[in-house]
């Protein structure tokens, strides 16, 4: 028998209160009592954590997710990514904040010399989210650019932008700093990054270095951005080395990821 007075609150009131919290708080509330569990698991709560237009996101095979409870849908979208129409962008939800996150495939990026086989080639990889990835054969002029509309992001959220890639067996020229940039709303954040850690080199402290991901790929942060309320324009990002013009090879690019930074 429930003796706690809070357990006697109407389910609608509890649901309304929980919808103003976060997915994590709603899951914790479900452990308070059976009455709280009913409210915490309700569609009324979890619909508030699902962004607009995400009720039926398309899958890689073009089929929509089957109708299910809002909590199950949220857990599905925050547990793994789904491909958007065209197969050149994937989307998922941040489990803590419900913010929308994306990866833009290499095919969707602007890459200098991408259509010249002696410079870039396209290869399928089983552990990639997309049908193929871009492998750098050799270039002197390295330039990779991408963009996404700010309205696709969650307002008020802080994002970080990452290049997601692997290195071939014998990469060359990727252990030197290159230019990275992230811009939104007329504001440009420029920095120096390095695609390959080199134990024989001392990298400057202000040069960002890559990290290994649990999925087997590497990631390199290009910068951060805040999606302000009312922002209406492109978020642009990229990396380049077009000054020293030394030979570069051995980069295998899956895409560029824009995800919530907790």
TrEMBL record:
SUPFAM superfamilies: F-box domain (SSF81383)
Pfam families: F-box-like, PP2
Database matches in InterPro entries: F-box-like_dom_sf (IPR036047), F-box_dom (IPR001810), PP2-like (IPR025886)
Source domain of life: Eukaryota
Name by which UniProt lists this protein: F-box domain-containing protein
Ranges of residues in domain F-box: 3-49
Organism expressing this protein natively: Triticum aestivum (Wheat)
